[in-house]
Automatic annotation (TrEMBL):
<dbReference type="InterPro" id="IPR029056">
    <property type="entry name" value="Ribokinase-like"/>
</dbReference>
<protein>
    <recommendedName>
        <fullName>Carbohydrate kinase PfkB domain-containing protein</fullName>
    </recommendedName>
</protein>
<dbReference type="GO" id="GO:0005829">
    <property type="term" value="C:cytosol"/>
</dbReference>
<dbReference type="InterPro" id="IPR002139">
    <property type="entry name" value="Ribo/fructo_kinase"/>
</dbReference>
<keyword id="KW-0418">Kinase</keyword>
<dbReference type="GO" id="GO:0016301">
    <property type="term" value="F:kinase activity"/>
</dbReference>
<dbReference type="GO" id="GO:0006796">
    <property type="term" value="P:phosphate-containing compound metabolic process"/>
</dbReference>
<keyword id="KW-0808">Transferase</keyword>
<comment type="similarity">
    <text>Belongs to the carbohydrate kinase PfkB family.</text>
</comment>
<dbReference type="Pfam" id="PF00294">
    <property type="entry name" value="PfkB"/>
</dbReference>
<dbReference type="InterPro" id="IPR002173">
    <property type="entry name" value="Carboh/pur_kinase_PfkB_CS"/>
</dbReference>
<dbReference type="InterPro" id="IPR011611">
    <property type="entry name" value="PfkB_dom"/>
</dbReference>
<feature type="domain" description="Carbohydrate kinase PfkB">
    <location>
        <begin position="29"/>
        <end position="277"/>
    </location>
</feature>
Amino acid sequence: MARLWVIGNVNADEVVHLDAPPWPGAHIAGRPGGERLGGGGANGAVALARAGHAVTLHACVGDDATGAAMVAACGAEGLDVSGLRRLPGRATSRPLILIDPDGERTLIARRTVSTADLDPPPADDGRVAGLLVKAASSALVPLMAGLTARGVPVVAHAPPASMASWPATVWVTSESEPSALDPAAPWASARARAGAALRWVVVTRGAAGATAFGPDGAEVTGPAAPVARVVDTTGAGDVFAAGLLHGLTEAGGDRIAPILDLAAHWAARAVATDGSIPPGDLCGPGVLPAGDP
């Protein structure tokens, strides 16, 4: 078990189950699915806790009743909530999550707080053994640089093109998301911003799996894990990124293929389950177990 940190958003997702996929100008019936814990930080942190790690989540919520409920929900999932900051006079973010009959989600962001409100950001205490960053803030660069300098694995979402420095061990993004990556030269474009600590750039492609790009033209593709039925794709990318960090802390970064396979299995379990928080049997039968990437 490793002592890990996660930096990202904690949201109160408001869910609506649609009777049909949305399209421009559509008039679609939907059924309210209630409010649930979500956000990239919470999703990834719970996945790592499911694998047996001691996880501290650094995020912001409002000082409203919704924020109190989300902090309590994180604690109930076994997370260290000492890094959760409640902001006076602010409302907790409540994105609208639309889920169609095939389990595909459409997210309508209604952001009222974010990781940019982590002021000051957490400082390295010398004991953290891995960091997952599901945010993009220049204030996090010193922490990321310090951790990578002492050999601590950092998995970070690829930043926007406007960020000149983003030191991490692994950049991860979806092929459909805009980022600082040049599709024609993903490794070189990431290396220019991540620096010498960068080992891999991982691009997810949904049902087509994921590809890791490394130095000297290295390219490793891992297939998506099979799913009997897609229930809810919300949070799958967050859980995949958490799987990458778990693999790095257990096996190091030289053998990326088994780490891609583990992350794909984690994501498959996530999409086969209602909700963005991964299931309790994330590392159970049929899924690569904790500590064995």
